[in-house]
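Contributing new records

If you add data, match the layout below exactly. Sequence lines come first and carry their own label; structure lines follow with theirs. Keep one chain per record. Anything else will be rejected by the validation script.
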Amino acid sequence: MRGKRSKQYRKLMQQYGLTFGFREPYQVLIDAQMLQDTSRFKMDLVTGLERTLHGQIKPSKVHRVLESPLKLNTISIAVFLSCKLTLYLVITQCTMRHLYLLPTSTPTSSTPSTSIMTMSNKNALIDLARTFERRRCDHHTLDEPLSTLECFTSVVDPKGSGTNKNRYIVASQEEEVRRWARGVKGVPSVYVKRSVMVMEPMSEGSLGVREGAERGKLRGGIRKVGEQGEKKRKREDEGEESVKDDKEANKKRTRGVKGPNPLSVKKAKKEFVAEKAGAANGHDVGDTKVLHDISAEQLITVGPDIPTSYKKKRKRKHKSETLALRDDAIVDMNHNEDASISA
């Protein structure tokens, strides 16, 4: 398979997986004509399907049959069961009956054995089909099997809803079956053309479903972004309101500039203006100069007849001094009493 076509098939299966939920291992529904053509072209059916679908086919409980005609003897059965390839496909009961009803003929010198269905080729096809998983279409009770179209319709879309609920991939050589598969949404179709396995592009119905899903995702994303924007704006508004409330609360709590602790600050120094003292004594104090000393007990003034001192404040004595005075007084009293007694 060429690289360009392989890339197209891989992208196509990715679209089926994203839109309709296809996943590995895939379920491929095979008809009798597909088995005949792959055998006539000497193609490996499982390997070709894996290469075309870019995925694994659903594994089977029974191992894959070799391409050469299988003779049912002890040695061939042992080789058959020891094969490590455990891949299989899906086949219906009607398809199995079609294989049993295939006409056979003996090869002649004019017609080679590869162009006609011999008994050995027929048995090989039947043995190969037995390794596939059987889908019960409930048509085995009929006298004759149904056509491939009717049987596939009952398996893929039994309710006629136009959907592929079980995610089957149809591999058929009949044009009528492939035309029906295009009408059902989400049904990949595979066929063989000149010994090349081809997968049909996505049908119009499937494309419509894919485009609708893409539009829904786009609208959902826009709606989600819009909801996120609204939530973000709401959060911003709420944040601004909370900031405003905090600012108002802080404004209410502010009490101005705080000053120092009054108990820890040195007391303010009193200022005595000499003008008041001079005015009280009836002197002219125009040339009076006032000097402020650090001491609060003295005020030095310079001028005619201005007092140089003021009444001192009462100074509180310390407790130790009062105790010492009391002790001295008691000692004096005792001394006087002793003197009087001696006299």
